[in-house]
């Protein structure tokens, strides 16, 4: 059975589909973007086979596995035959073992060329981690809440820069309000897969721009080594007027219901302070979203200032602008750091 190394996968994916034969539950926990899930076993079937393997014998587990797979074999071939490919179909399971080998054998027997991935999904994940842990040249956009960091990041992309929008990958904006308006977050495992997929074609000799983030974005965690390198990379700090930040945040969040906003505020009542939380809820009930925002920014700005002071030596660019103008700010940043 022909197999390819995990570091060869990207080259083989050009025009060739990737089939993940793990269970639906394994696939949901994390998968390679674009992979097609054709599970050899259902979640319950795999659990039963695994129990037999551990508690009875390998032979009993094998026989039960064949009971499950046998009636499905023609269906597997039919599904695979509907896929277009240039050279072959690529198959992987968790560790590149029996599930992927059996599936690839079946396809080859049916006249559909198929290869497996050595060490399976585990090997792919290991390669992805080593790729992300290289010495990338990060620059980190930092600014107080409401300063338009994400817009600046997108503007840098339009200017031809390499960017990673961690919040977009996490489906969350980072604060207690960050999940509003977003679809469900991926698992941390899937986030890591998506992060690799975003960076896979980047030039390691060029700058990669990121937005300043906490280690945790909603319930998704940035990989530790990636976060450490990012956290101590050069900072590009932008400041815009307080009231403009208030207006921008009101425009972004006033569209949500008072119930959603009040629930988010309740999550930081202790850190905000009981009186401040009460004032914020009162202003919210009156529809005074600007006042709500001012109260909340007192907390967020204080936390931001503490974080930035700890890394002040990393700031390589810092400028206060009279108003937010994405194009003008980006031109100034690129002009200053490229001198």
Record the strand order, biggest sheet. 1-5-4-2-3
Helix/strand-derived category reads alpha/beta
- What is the gyration radius calculated from CA atoms? 25 Å
Q: What is the helical fraction, as a range of percent?
A: 40-55%
Quote the average pLDDT. Answer: 94
DSSP helix count?
Answer: 17
Succession of helices and strands = EHEHEHHHEHEHEHEHHEEEHEHHHHHEH
Main sheet attributes: strand count, strand direction, barrel closure: 5 strands, parallel
**Tell me, what is the CATH class of the largest domain?**
Alpha Beta
Task: Give the low-confidence spans.
Answer: none
What name does CATH use for the topology of the largest domain? Rossmann fold
What does this structure look like?
- The protein is an alpha/beta fold.
- The chain has 2 domains: 3-129, Oxidized Rhodanese, domain 1 (3-Layer(aba) Sandwich); 135-337, Rossmann fold.
- The protein has 17 helices and 12 strands.
- It has helices at 9-12, 24-29, 43-55, 58-69, 73-81, 98-109, 120-132, 149-158, 166-170, 188-199, 224-231, 242-253, 258-266, 269-272, 274-285, 289-309, 326-337, and strands at residues 3-4, 18-20, 36-37, 89-92, 114-117, 137-142, 162-164, 207-211, 216-217, 220-221, 235-239, 315-320.
- The strands form 3 sheets. It has a 5-stranded parallel sheet with strand order 1-5-4-2-3. It has a 5-stranded parallel sheet with strand order 7-8-6-11-12, sandwiched between helices.
- α6 (98-109) links the parallel β4 and β5 (114-117).
- The longest helix has 21 residues, at 289-309.
